[in-house]
Amino acid sequence: MRTALVIGTGLIGTSAALALAGRGVHVHLVDHDPAQAETAAALGAGTDRAPEGPVDLAIVAVPPAHVAATLAEAIRGGAARGYLDVASVKGGPRRELEALGVDLTTYLGTHPMAGRERSGPLAATADLFEGRPWVLTPTRDTDTEVLNLALELIALCRAVPVVMDADAHDRAVALVSHTPQLVSSMVAARLQDADETAVRLCGQGIRDVTRIAASDPRMWIDILSANPGPVADVLAAVAADLDGTVRALRALDSGDDGRREDGAAGIADVLRRGNAGRTRVPGKHGSAPTVYETVTVLIGDQPGELARIFADAGRAGVNIEDVRIEHAAGQQAGHIQLMIEPTAVPSLIDTLQERGWSLRQ
């Protein structure tokens, strides 16, 4: 691949363009808002000048509702040798293209499983896709050359190719992406009118659950409008669990010992099923999840403190597998949780105490 055309210079399109441009591909940028394409070009993602002829690969990075029309225009105009989109829904756009009578041999639907709470070209990074799954949904009609171009794109972005059926993909993302967004937003919505004293008690748990609630509503309306059925199916199952959990909690709140036992059993059931489901979430590098030990350290809110604690962990010969930071309310300090292999705990604790860190049990 020597040339590419990125249509849509939001987070995903600009990030792909930055990755390609950084690896020597000449990238052309187009957007319905010329200012966005100019911004992406200024960031080093390519040029906002139109290509003089067909490029090797056209990447359509527009909202799902506009994918089919944008692809049809590009394909009929002969913009490239191969075409793909990066929308988070795959079945609907393909059926729309078929209804438009477009030749789909040069088209391949794809979806990089990466994103951020922020949108737009200024949120883009060249390493957004590194190590992340990138779904391909080829059909029997997909031209081999187009598949090879898509695989080259994924390799240049340092992502991991995953081949799926389009409708199976849509059911999967309804479970692992679209429903979590809605649930996160529903929990965060409870905070809107909450008493200020309650909000001041927010800790890492509520921060974890509501992190993605900061996402752009307009973007998610586009996504959910393209995949409503599968998302509704998952939410219906969640709603059944919520209803059962509410009944169990009401039973726990009753004065009847028998009902209280039933309520406790109901709560235990949903928590255990949650434990079992959580263990299926892939761990580091996509491997089976690993149980790490957590070492919690009090850390000041001054420049260089994070670098210092990481350096001290390095002196102990300990690899930090994951990190979480919980800021202390009303103080210039917080707690940093270092997730490490269980066998490394004694060495890390000894070194951090020797270096003057205050540890929390």
UniProtKB/TrEMBL annotation:
The keyword Zinc does not apply. Signal peptide: none annotated. Residues 294-361 form the ACT domain. It comes from the Bacteria. Pfam families: PDH_C, PDH_N. The keyword 4Fe-4S does not apply. It catalyses: prephenate + NAD(+) = 3-(4-hydroxyphenyl)pyruvate + CO2 + NADH. Coiled coil: none annotated. Residues 2-283 form the Prephenate/arogenate dehydrogenase domain. Pathway: Amino-acid biosynthesis; L-tyrosine biosynthesis; (4-hydroxyphenyl)pyruvate from prephenate (NAD(+) route): step 1/1. Keywords: Amino-acid biosynthesis, Aromatic amino acid biosynthesis, NAD, Oxidoreductase, Tyrosine biosynthesis. GO terms for molecular function: NAD+ binding; prephenate dehydrogenase (NAD+) activity; prephenate dehydrogenase (NADP+) activity. Its EC number is 1.3.1.12. Belongs to the prephenate/arogenate dehydrogenase family. NCBIfam families: PRK06545.2-1 (NF005109), PRK06545.2-3 (NF005111), PRK06545.2-4 (NF005112). This is Prephenate dehydrogenase.
